[in-house]
Amino acid sequence: EPEVTQTPSHQVTQMGQEVILRCVPISNHLYFYWYRQILGQKVEFLVSFYNNEISEKSEIFDDQFSVERPDGSNFTLKIRSTKLEDSAMYFCASSIRQGSGYTFGSGTRLTVV
Amino acid sequence: AQSVTQPDIHITVSEGASLELRCNYSYGATPYLFWYVQSPGQGLQLLLKYFSGDTLVQGIKGFEAEFKRSQSSFNLRKPSVHWSDAAEYFCAVGPLGEGNEKLTFGTGTRLTIIP
What we know:
The structure holds 2 protein chains of 2 kinds. Chain A is an all-beta fold.
């Protein structure tokens, strides 16, 4: 069964450093998403991406965040200058069309120290 | 704005017993509704989804959910749970008929199975 692959599974970074979280969506999917889940809290929407541009972003997704689909297969989330409060599990997801439901990756646990 | 409430933070059931996890949503029109399951350290796996039509939806692993518009509910059920069902369960709602599906998740219900 096709999967969404996220790397790394766990990343530790120092406050103020830049991090890039990587995702390989399912190959024929067209819509891409990032969500995050702070420990013990609900899963929160960050950003959706379609046709090589951001479709929608939440208030969490400020200027420190950016997304890119650099080569037609990878989908990355960059955090320019990490803060302690960015520590969370970050999930990538993709879907083939509206209404099909997402396929989520297994997540990257980001720890900012 | 759309919202999801899962009133039960933690539920414990015996193996073989029936299960019902509650989900109430708030949305201005008919939404997409989803149930996801998350095992420890794992991603979110789609159990089932409702878009339209039959209000009783069958999913994977023997789960089903019933959409009740009058109660704004989408409760998840299973007639007989297995130890492997122990996990966190999330209900989610999304907009119907739009190109991008920004999902709003509930806070989750942790399910513990006892022998």
